[in-house]
Amino acid sequence: MQERPSLSDFALPAGPAQRRQSVAVNVGGVMVGSDHPIAVQSMTNTDTADIESTVAQVMALARAGSELVRVTVDREEAAAAVPHIRDKVRAAGIDVPLIGDFHYIGHKLLAEYPGCAEALDKYRINPGNVGFRKKRVSQFDAIIETALRYDKPVRIGVNWGSLDQELLTLLMDENGRQAHPISATAVMREAMVRSALLSAARAEEIGMPRDKIILSAKVSDVQQLITVYRMLAQRCDYALHLGLTEAGMSSKGLIASSAAMGILLQEGIGDTIRYSLTPEPGGDRSLEVKACQELLQSMGFRQFLPIVSACPGCGRTTSSLFQELARDIQNHIAARMPTWKETYPGVEAMSVAVMGCVVNGPGESKHADIGISLPGTGEQPAAPVFIDGEKATTLRGPKLAEDFTALVEDYVARRYGGASRQDDAA
Hints:
The structure is a single chain. By secondary structure, the chain is α/β, with parallel strands linked by helices. It folds into 2 domains: 275 residues, Dihydropteroate synthase-like (TIM Barrel), CATH 3.20.20; 110 residues, Sulfite Reductase Hemoprotein, domain 1. Helices cover 45% and strands 17% of the residues. The chain is built from 14 helices and 17 strands. An 8-stranded parallel barrel has the order 3-4-5-6-7-8-9-11, surrounded by 5 helices. Strand 3, helix 1 and strand 4 form a beta-alpha-beta unit. Helix 8 runs parallel beside helix 9 and helix 13 crosses helix 14. It is globular and about 80 Å long. Pathway: Isoprenoid biosynthesis; isopentenyl diphosphate biosynthesis via DXP pathway; isopentenyl diphosphate from 1-deoxy-D-xylulose 5-phosphate: step 5/6. It is an enzyme of class 1 (oxidoreductase).
């Protein structure tokens, strides 16, 4: 008789693969790579020459949780504005590192506007359009030399849509001469990886240390992005910035970016991330920051906000009460977090459950730090509240939402307040 397997045979470890060990880079005081937390990055979409609107958006992104903010530096007016933007942001008490995004004439702007070169915390260079033909190397070198002069790190960011055409043509010709050529798409992937690595090697030749270099290789297709970054991760130990470029709008952009970056992060690849979402007209730019945070938190890499679990609803939950309470509690937590983070260290790890009926409600509520199981259709009009796995009270009546919010506030103060921590230590 075949031996019955034991439970230990099925005890697969939960969690991501071991983090790829990359070289750590200091970007304006934020450490990127190695064992440091995966950093959240965003980018303004204001005209950088418009100082006031750019300052406002940088501050909004930073307050939303962006740990690195990139601004476009595309012309003289933008370069001249950068030091003023930096000064106004710092005067407001926000020290988020500023990254300059350079294309075509970055070498010229950095040379002619030393205040811009000094004010930025990192330069982003695209080797596909840093210069053309004979000027490519000299203009790339000029940016690296400026970065060395001001002791700034660089991100060498290759993009599918602006790939180095000379390198691509060379590789396509080589491939065409092979007895068994690979696909044109595979050649493009190799061109992207090689462009990043050759550019990094050139930067090192000039004198740029490895701990000043971050690489990225962005495409707009999920499977291509995964493959390109796997190739890049296998062939270098530079810190890597992840992002699906031109991800799109709304749920499409969110889902595609999450699918691509989630797989790579699970494999231990990625040191900074960004959701390159197309905003709705007049939409909130900070959505991309929130998406980064939610991805990292849902995968267990970082904690930013307490998690609010809520059931999706079914025929048992024809009342909208649990939906309204879940929304209100989530909004309450978001509004209170700036104060809570200062007063109650560790509160970001708290879990809250707002459930809609008796099927999974009590069980999910017990698993949360604090949870409530609201009555479903036809159930008794009572809502048991569970705290740390034990039933603590039962709420009823028109003030149920208000009462549960008060219980959450009380729980935060007791569990994460100084007195509570001292009692735990004792």
